[in-house]
Amino acid sequence: MKELAILLMAHRDVDLINRLISHLQHPEIDIYIHIDKKSQFLVDLIVPFQNTTILSENESYDVHWGQNQDNRAAIALINCSIGKYNHYALISGQHYLLKSAESIVDELKKTPEVDFISIMPRDSPIYNSFIGRSVLYWPECLIGRNPLQKGISYTYRSVSKALGYPLRRNRGHHSTDSFMFGSQWWILSANTIDYIYNKIHNDPKILDYYDNSFCPDECIFQTLVNEYSESHVVNDNLTYIDWSEGKASPKLLTKDDYSLLECSNCLFARKFDSIASKELLDRIDQNLLQA
Q1: Structural domain of residue 105, as residue ranges?
Q2: Which of 5, 45, 233, 259 gives 85 a disulfide partner, CB atoms 3.0 to 4.6 angstroms apart?
Q3: What distance in Å separates the CA atoms of residue 213 and residue 136, rounded to the nearest whole number?
């Protein structure tokens, strides 16, 4: 088997996508790309590298922030690549490498059974505030980033929490206290990906459950990995992300962030823009990707 499948979720900025995948050219790496159904025009703009597979429009989803289409897209990428790699890395089209492809392959070969995924501990002071994301039924109209949606969804979650989540949904044979949370992005081992694939393939209702959850892309994989008794988790997804601005999306990285990235032990970082981050991307190319 090859070492690494890159599972790339794309919806914009084809220049950054092409720049990213050009640096992922390595005999041990293949790239699988899901393009948002709204952005299918990107298909003709992505450079057709030999190690790159773009999912067909029939396999793509119309992704909306905070909803379950992200998970369905990630599962579609897994379905397309299952059984061929030692590790699988879920990244976005706004990721970029902090180490060369050769270095990434070498690092992962040292840890063949390790899962690099951030999972919030249950004793975290904010864990209980996340439960409402998954136990409540969330109408899709409440999930979004405009001020009205934010205000209504905050009220809905706060009132529900105060009342003990009276609209708590039945997860069937899955305990509602087993939900775990963390970053959407991860690098998982072949054994764990096989477990997730088989679990959802044999019981599609697991994925269906998250259709009316809030930001389920930050829950389902953490929950399934935590349930898998054979997983070997390192609570670090090896992706540098700056949430210091306190917004729903992370900070856009620019040249001022270079020193922090240079000192990082991460393999990837997010998020970048081909124009606003150009000076930073150039420095990364020149100084970090030459190893």
Answers
A1: 2-121+180-287
A2: 5
A3: 7
